[in-house]
Amino acid sequence: MKKEKTTESEVSGYISGLFRTHFGKGPASVFVAIRKPFVVIHLREFLAPTEKVLMSQKESVRVQEIRDLLMRDLKEQIKLDLLKSAELEIKEIHADWNLENKTGLLILVLNGEAEEKAQEWPKDIDKKAFYQEVADASKKAQKEPDKTEVVWLNERTVLIRREGILIEIEKELIRNNFTEQLKLAKRPLEAKLIYNSSLEQLLNRKITEAFTDWDFKDDIGYMVLLIEAKK
């Protein structure tokens, strides 16, 4: 069994090379945080030359669509390669992009149970209030989740998993194969709700970036907050 630090290094190197091959330019840096069953991969300074041209022409939606299509094709390769090189049995892969910041984030959901070690909730953060604020923010975008799980991968990376958040019109769009259009509409909406919520005050630290993606088939939403380190 590989050590976690070795796994992080293995994943970081692999993703850098893969993206360089398929996008024409790899990220300047890749940071990996692991707390099973989740692996979060943060990419910095990642924008290919052709994407820069499209961005300069106000074609950010097209860049998002192209990346989503490419990631769809790469998912099975990533699963096979990381099973072989890092012994990670990946069930799902999700991705989101902050094109203005030239950053991106991948969420790998692994097969198997969560880590046995009890999750440490920061003592200076009101857990009940945090969960309630997540529910309230979700309700403004779609509906209050049937179930919410918050996982601290490290002191600067918070993953929020919500089940049962889709409303009927969204389900109908999914049934009619409008998933990409729905995703493109929901991303900025959820980001806006995060930054307009009280989550920063509850965290007692600034949210530097927020990323979202969905498993529409099983009605699950993922949100990752990257926050400043404690002063």
Q: Secondary structure elements and their pairing?
A:
Elements: H1 4-23, E1 29-35, E2 38-44, H2 49-56, H3 60-86, E3 90-98, E4 103-110, H4 127-141, E5 147-154, E6 157-163, H5 168-175, H6 179-195, H7 199-203, E7 207-215, E8 220-227
Antiparallel strand pairs: 1-2, 2-4, 3-4, 5-6, 6-8, 7-8
Helix pairs in contact: 1-3, 4-6
- Report the strand count: 8
Radius of gyration: 17 Å
Q: Decide which structural class fits the backbone.
A: alpha+beta
Tally of structural domains: 2
**Overall pLDDT level:** 92
Strand order of the largest sheet: 1-2-4-3
Indicate the proportion of strand residues: 25-35%
Uncertain stretches of 5 or more adjacent residues: none
Major sheet attributes: 4 strands, antiparallel
SSE series: HEEHHEEHEEHHHEE
Taking the alpha carbons of the first and last residues, their distance comes to 36 Å
Please, how many helices? 7
Shape: globular
Helix proportion:
40-55%
